[in-house]
Design brief:
Blueprint: E1 2-7, H1 12-21, H2 23-26, E2 30-33, H3 35-45, E3 49-51, H4 59-68, E4 74-78, H5 86-101, E5 106-107, H6 110-122, H7 127-131
Parallel strand pairs: 1-2, 1-4, 2-3, 4-5
Helix pairs in contact: 1-3, 4-5
Length: 138
C-alpha cells in the first residue's frame, strides 16, 4: 500500500507518536509525506519516507494529483481544527474531496487513524491493491 502522511504544525508530534506506535505495520508499506512531516517521521522512527514538497510549496497539490491517479491508497492527515488560515482549510478540503472522489481512505484525527491502521493490519483494505492501475509502459 502507498500511504501518505500529512500533519499540521501542532499535530506533527502526534503523527510521530502514531508512526512510532504502529511502526511494525507501517514498515510493510510505502510511505510518503509532505516535506517537514516526512523528515520528522523518518528521523524519529527510521522508516523510509518519500518526500513531497512542503504545503506552502504545493505539497498538497502533489498529493491530490497522486490521489486522482490512484497512486495513493491511504492518507493520514492530522489536522488542527483550530487553524485560522483559510488557505490551509481550503487545501484540507480539497484533499478530502479528492480522497472521497477516488474512494481513498483518509483519517483526519487519531481515532480514525487507529481504525484504519488496524484495518490495514487485518487485511481489510487489500481491495485497494486490486483497483490500483498497472504502471504505463513507455
Amino acid at each position: 500500500m502507498n500511504i501518505t502522511l500529512i500533519a499540521h504544525d501542532k499535530k506533527k508530534e502526534l503523527m510521530i507518536q502514531f508512526c512510532t506506535a504502529y511502526k511494525s505495520i507501517l514498515s510493510k508499506h510505502n510511505l510518503s509525506a509532505t516535506a517537514t512531516t516526512g523528515r520528522m517521521v523518518a528521523d524519529a522512527t527510521g522508516l523510509p519516507v518519500s518526500l513531497f514538497m512542503a504545503r506552502s510549496q504545493g505539497g498538497y497539490q502533489q498529493i491530490d494529483a497522486r490521489v486522482a491517479y490512484n497512486e495513493i491508497d491511504m492518507v493520514f492527515m492530522f489536522t488542527d481544527p483550530n487553524t485560522t488560515d483559510p488557505w490551509e482549510d481550503q487545501c484540507i478540503l480539497q484533499t478530502i474531496h479528492q480522497c472521497d472522489t477516488h474512494n481513498v481512505p483518509v483519517a483526519t484525527n487519531l481515532a480514525s487513524a487507529e481504525m484504519l491502521i488496524l484495518g490495514l493490519q487485518r487485511g481489510d483494505l487489500d481491495w485497494r491493491e486490486m483497483i490500483r492501475p498497472k504502471k504505463f509502459l513507455r
